[in-house]
Amino acid sequence: MRRFDLAPLYRATVGFDQMADMMDRILTDTSATPSYPPYNIEKTADDAWRISIAVAGFSEDDLSVEVRENALIVSAKKTEDTDERTYLHRGIANRAFERRFALADHVRVSGASHVNGMLNIDLVREVPEALKPRRIEIAAGDTVEAKAVEAK
């Protein structure tokens, strides 16, 4: 596996420590990437996304969706079956899982739904007014002085 040196990034930037740490953590992760349960991430608008996770066999009570410290954590714990069943083949995995998704700043969960064995989590980026670009009017030199004189 390739090893990237992020030292130039640390030397040339200020305030991007979290992003550099996340890249370093992702690039040096030697553990196998979990493949259960399968999921999709789709872009539904310019500032909106949907994460769809295949959760066949789980009910809404078995699933948990949390947002903690800029991370979306989806977990499931299957309740024990009280009836005794004899399976000839058991191909549907109902094992417990936990999936984590890192969320960017100002991205929040707008809703979640469980339909036809799919858990859909909708995300939206809401940039505060103070951070949105704004246009500053440029006044003529005489106008600014005239207003200052009127104020005195």
Keywords summarizing the entry:
four-stranded antiparallel β-sheet; alpha+beta; Immunoglobulin-like; three-stranded antiparallel β-sheet; 2 domains; 3 helices; 18% helix; 152 residues; 32% strand
Structure description:
- The chain is an alpha+beta fold.
- Helices cover 18% and strands 32% of the residues.
- The chain has 2 domains: 31 residues, no CATH class; 115 residues, Immunoglobulin-like (Sandwich).
Helical content band? 10-25%
First and last CA, distance: 70 Å
Q: Major beta sheet, specifics?
A: 4 strands, antiparallel
Q: How many helix segments?
A: 3
Overall pLDDT level: 80
What is the level 1 CATH name of the largest domain?
Mainly Beta
Low-confidence stretches: none
Give a quick rundown of the structure.
With 152 residues, the protein is of the alpha+beta class. It has helices at residues 7-12, 17-27, 141-151, and strands spanning 39-45, 48-54, 63-67, 71-76, 97-102, 107-115, 118-125.
Which SSEs are present, and which pair or pack?
Layout: H1 7-12, H2 17-27, E1 39-45, E2 48-54, E3 63-67, E4 71-76, E5 97-102, E6 107-115, E7 118-125, H3 141-151
Antiparallel strand pairs: 1-2, 2-7, 3-4, 4-5, 6-7
